[in-house]
Amino acid sequence: MxxxxxxxxxxxVGIGKVMIDTSSMPWNIPHLHFLVDGDSDxxxxxxxxxxxxxxxxxxxxxxxxxxxxxxxxxxAVMHEGGGYEEFKDMALNSFMNAYWDAYRYIEFCLxxxxxxxxxxxxxxxxxxxQNMFDKKVKELIAAKAEEAIREYEKMAAVKVSGVxxxxxxxxx
Length: 172
Fold this sequence. Notes:
This protein has about 170 residues and is of the alpha+beta class. Helix content is about 55%, strand content about 20%. Strands 1-2-3-4-5 form a 5-stranded antiparallel sheet.
């Protein structure tokens, strides 16, 4: 999709999000957004929050390289830079506004066809939760069924083994 950004004609071929696992940190980094532009044998993926750019011979490789670059950047800022405040300052800077406009435009174009990234990610998460729930319910039902079968077998094992009768008149 050709879009002008800052006077440049860009051929955007994809958008994406990078999700960073910060479970070992006292803070989170929100999902980071990126655009991929290029033609046939050279592509660039640009992180909108941090202004980082990675290139590669394919769309996918440029996106993967961007993921690695973002991780390296986060580690460098945390250990040698301004820490979390630097992330916020970079993300709130307006230098990427033209790219943000392009990202939002593309996301709405995709949403019009029910192919937007946000709902796709949300759908994957929802399906994973539903699958996990279904598995747990099936496990619970199977466990309860086994328990019911064991109880039935115990009850079924209780049988009349014989009847003995003594008449009181005969016993007198």
